[in-house]
Amino acid sequence: MKKHNFSAGPCILPQEVMKKASEAVLDFNGLGLSLIEISHRSKDFVAVMDKARSLSLELLDLQDKGYQALFLQGGASMEFLMVAYNLLEKKAGYLNTGTWADKAIKEARIFGEVVEVGSSKDKNYNYIPKGYSVPTDLDYLHLTSNNTIFGTQIKDFPKTTTPLVCDMSSDIFSRQLDFSQFDLIYAGAQKNMGPAGTTLVVIKEDILGKVSRTIPSMLNYKVHIEKESMFNTPAVFPVYVSMLTLEWLKNLGGIAAIEEVNEKKARLLYSEIDLNPLFRGYAQKEDRSIMNATFTLTEEKLKGVFDEMCKEAGINGIHGHRSIGGYRASMYNALSLDSVGTLVDVMSELERKG
Ligand code: PMP
User: What would the mean pLDDT of 303-328 be, rounded to a whole number?
Assistant: First the structure.
């Protein structure tokens, strides 16, 4: 039976990417060798890294604009500290929109003063703070564009001359934005890109070199840029799969094309959540994420029946994060409209059964 994979991450990837990736594990480029048993310095793999980096910039429309793309290790969590290590001299601003933003704040405090310019902690992060002011003396302002756990997403980014750093782990490549408003973007691969194990970091080069501390090589963005993301052995398989996914997205028509599908999926699910009296959305409507929809049952006693119906329909991975409970349906790029339709059918069937 077809599985409908709503997992929050690691998550669904395009089938054709999986197929090509599995073939490359057995025989890469007809070399008679596996992708994962050749040198990362071989010309075949260097071409993969180059392509993954250039496709990232191309899809974000950041080519020839002073940006560099890197594929690093340590997950998005490593970027929580690398950002501060490389950019925080005195004071940084953070918008606290959830668990991940909070973790980023905790790491940054090791390196300097951190001001929370806004926080939605008062309502267990079910909204995006608005109307906050950005102090003029910040080294950077850090935002989390999509809050994977709570299902909120920033729709309007602050207009400021302060350098903007954005954790886009769970919505990169999913919607059109003017990406040049950001000075640094990072995203763990395991949502819209590839398997866990690599993190895309896109940096405007001229923001680097401004802190006075000595930065260890592995944590130094400049070193990674100089070495073209090959300072040490990169995560060859995750980078390869990311490259394949970026190619898939480009062939589909890029971010503009996938955004249309993503909006359709989100509209379909949210309208069921709003119309079906058995369900209630968690996030405030105007801040709803098009990637992660969070909702609860209005009658807890139906949980067993609903869970069983989902299981029978092949629906996987919709249990909410332990910090908010309920349900979370993640609708990343590779999830089809048909899968969302299946979930919506089950939800309306539950209503009919009453
Ligand atoms: N930021 C966001 C928005 C996330 O969703 C996650 C993981 N789900 C992280 C950071 C942490 O990522 P990692 O596990 O790659 O360190």
Answer: 96
- Domain of 326 in residue numbering reads as 254-353
Q: Are 140 and 112 in contact (CB under 8 A)?
A: no
3-state secondary structure of 338: helix
Taking CA atoms, 351 is separated from 42, 222, 235, 307, in Å, by 58, 56, 46, 14
Residues 118 and 260 in one domain: no
Q: Which pTM does this prediction carry?
A: 0.98
Tell me the pLDDT tens digit for each residue of 230-244: 999 999 999 999 999
Ligand 1 atom closest to Cα of residue 168: 3
Q: Is 77 in the pocket of ligand 1 (CB under 6 A)?
A: yes
Q: Tell whether 265 and 334 lie within a shared domain.
A: yes
- CATH number for position 188: 3.40.640.10
Q: Which of 148, 150, 185, 323 to mutate to test the pocket of ligand 1 (most atoms within 8 A of CB)?
A: 148
Specify the residue with its C-alpha closest to ligand 1, atom 3.
Answer: 169
